[in-house]
Write a structure and sequence with these properties.
This protein is mostly beta strands. The chain contains no helices and 7 strands. The protein has one domain.
């Protein structure tokens, strides 16, 4: 493992998106910043290897299919304006 740093990734408030990060990245938290939903992760800045994380964003009251629940790991909740967003990583 090389040198680590915390990087920010801006998220869209869509149901599902892919975020490319260095291999071995660890998601630390999710919050709002400047009216955007953002995810912070500790990453290895010495590696050129990348991985794609599938991020699922659901608003309060939005349905999550039962079959999808075992695949989701909760990352955090962010408040953007009057909306509340709940963020998950989809694990394989």
């Amino acid at each position: 493992m090389g040198t680590r740093a915390v990087y920010k990734y801006r998220l869209d408030t869509t149901d599902r998106q892919q975020v490319t990060m260095p291999v071995g990245s660890v998601v630390l938290c999710v919050h709002e910043q400047s009216r955007w939903l953002a995810l912070w992760a500790e990453v290895d800045i010495d590696t050129d290897l990348k991985e794609i994380k599938t991020i699922v964003v659901k608003g309060t009251g939005h349905p999550i299919p039962e079959e999808q629940m075992p695949l989701l790991r909760y990352l955090g909740t962010g408040f953007v304006d009057s909306f509340v967003w709940h963020v998950y990583e989809e694990e394989e």
